[in-house]
Write a structure and sequence with these properties.
This protein is mainly alpha-helical. 72% of the residues lie in helices and 1% in strands. The chain has helices at 2-29, 37-55, 58-82, 87-105, 132-136, 140-158, 160-170, 172-177, 182-208, 220-230, 235-257, 264-283, 286-292, and strands at residues 120-121, 137-138.
């Protein structure tokens, strides 16, 4: 029973990280670094919760959160792609902006609780011993996040559009010489990243813990950005990194529930410590990271 609960909580805790990291991966593959993921997640969480609370419609809340993420991402796209501002500074500014905006619009809803998105069972498969309830009795976004990983991997490796996206991310100069629509590609990639960040935030406020509190993302946006590096810009590896974080999160929650005599603050920090430890080990091979990173990441369009 405990193993089933750990699996169940691992999938749920990993879902917002998978969504946010996939969006960031696509944006970075186009050469745009988006450090505003944390702020976009917060705006998505707040806007989605408010709409779901007022309309009593969870799915409308998810849709609005997605649109809110796109709106914040559009600001990032205009500033970094059209005006060519510094991507690091712009991303940090948007992260702070998103944190403040979400606190402002959600001030009247702090502490409120709603009925979150409910899981549904897949007949027959849910009856599989031990893993059935964990894998086949989840909410729709858990399944969607896994499907999206395979779709993004297929898009990047098997489609012409994916090849164009990767070409833009590797060399804006060569892509421009070939006549590729660099700005259009980057805009679409950044907007996709914003949509995923907004949806990831809404998962936290509408599904994982269906209530609203300021800064409820608790740094998950930054973990998602780090996961992209941990995954060496490969979608399938994002699953591994997200489930590592989710697994440690689930274990620390169960330890707290069992009353283990360890400070709850220390237990709460375990998922972040585990992720930092893995990133530190991987980052020791800086040459390998540089070789797999998109060559034009963080660089504006350079015309010949």
């Amino acid at each position: 029973m405990i193993f089933t609960n750990i699996l169940n909580d691992t999938l749920r805790a990993a879902t917002p990280l998978i969504l946010a990291a996939l969006g960031e991966l696509v944006a970075e593959k186009s050469g745009v670094l988006n450090l505003g993921v944390e702020g976009m997640m917060l705006v998505g969480a707040a806007s989605g919760f408010i709409v779901a609370s007022v309309t009593d419609n969870i799915y409308l809340g998810l849709l609005i959160a997605l649109v809110a993420g796109i709106a914040i991402a559009f600001i990032h796209a205009v500033l970094t792609i059209t005006i060519s501002t510094n991507q690091v500074a712009t991303g940090l500014a948007l992260s702070i902006f998103g944190s403040g905006l979400s606190a402002f619009i959600g001030a009247d809803y702090v502490g409120q609780i709603i009925t979150g998105l409910q899981p549904f069972s897949i007949p027959i498969l849910e009856s599989i011993p031990v893993i059935g309830k964990a894998f086949f009795q989840q909410d729709i976004l858990v399944y969607l996040s896994i499907i999206l990983v395979f779709l993004v991997a297929w898009f990047l490796q098997k489609t012409r559009s994916g090849l164009i996206l990767r070409s833009v991310g590797e060399s804006t100069t060569a892509a421009h010489a070939l006549g590729l629509p660099i700005n259009r590609v980057r805009y679409l990639a950044v907007l996709f990243g914003g949509a995923m960040a907004g949806l990831a935030g809404a998962y936290l406020s509408l599904v994982y813990t269906p209530f609203w509190a300021e800064n409820m993302t608790a740094g998950r946006g930054w973990i998602a950005i780090a996961l992209v590096v941990f995954a060496t810009w490969k979608p399938m590896r994002i699953l591994l990194g997200a489930y590592l974080f989710g697994g440690v999160s689930a274990i620390q929650l169960i330890l707290q529930g069992l009353g283990v005599d360890i400070s709850p603050y220390l237990l709460s920090s375990l998922p972040y410590l585990a992720t930092i430890l893995v990133l530190t080990i991987i980052s020791r091979d800086a040459t390998r990271i540089q070789l797999v990173a998109p060559a034009s990441l963080g660089k504006p369009l350079q015309k010949l």
